[in-house]
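Action item from last week, closing it out:
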Amino acid sequence: MSAKKVVHIKAAPAQAALSPAQKKFNNLIKKIDVQKQLLAEWQKMFERCQRDAVEKLVPLKQSMKEQQTAMVQLLDRQFTSNKFTRNQQEKLTHIIVELCEELLCSDDNAELKSMYNKYTQSDYDTEAEEEQDMTTEFMKSMFEKEFGIALDDDDIDLQNPQATAERLTAKVKQLEAAAAARPQRKKSAKQLAKEAREAEEAANVSKSIQAVYRQLTAALHPDREQDPVERERKTELMQQVTVAYSNKDLLKLLELQLAVEQIDQSKLSSLSAERLKHYNKILSDQLAELQDEVLFKENEIRMMLQLSPFEPLSPNRLVTLLKHDIQTLRAALKGIQNDLQVFQDVKNLKAWLKNFRLPQPESGFDPFFDEFPSFR
């Protein structure tokens, strides 16, 4: 397979140096290529991590939930069947309540709710409903302030973010449509002239990419090819041309022109200033769209891994983080399985409680990942 020909402008023999527009063209090509490679790498790693998450992480999380539920049940039995000091009771209560809260976040378990209610002297469903109402009200207020729209109580559904986003989008569009329908102040001659220039420039830019597309389709139309092998090759190339044109991917179209030898280095170097200006506008827009795609994919992964927006992230680091999560969960699972055996003997449980320290308020305590060491 022949190597891909690189789209790059070189100084012509009679040219001392590249013009600013030519340098910009080359710089945009390099940046687009980097973003394309990064996006492809993100997608590859994302798919790999999704596969590993389904095959390895999800089963481990399910096993962890089962073991944590078993731990809650064991601690409750020990609490009920044995005598503990007031301090030990406080520690046991804290651990049981924390575990119930964590498990109930992902599982509507009646037994765990009953256990939570028993040790908090409250009602889980009531507290959850009050917390959801407060969160909904906060989100509603935030969105109203951010977008300048009035929302109804049922517009925000924390259980269905997709539906909430769709309703917000519809409200914003209604507001924009209403604003557009209002009588507009008459534009000045200067404003009208500027808009006309911008419209003409946009049309010329569009024509530039259309011209490349037409040249390629004229040369690659498979129906005009008699040789079956060549027809198949042209059919495949035409598919690439169609996809690139629909995506306004000028770089890909130029690469295809180089591949089929419609253009060569001399033609790239002799592009007119006007054509180069239009190409640079298309490439700038293409680069911005690619950068947005990369950012969107990165944010999607951050949400999946529950990472901070400020934490450094790269495709290779994504794999490392997932491996670390799997290893950590395996170790935690092994630890809690050991603890379940050890805590069957109440003497061992009391000895462990003696060294256990209650966390400070709002510390983000997680009893089995942070401060629930295995009793070995």
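Closing note: The chain has a mean pLDDT of 84.
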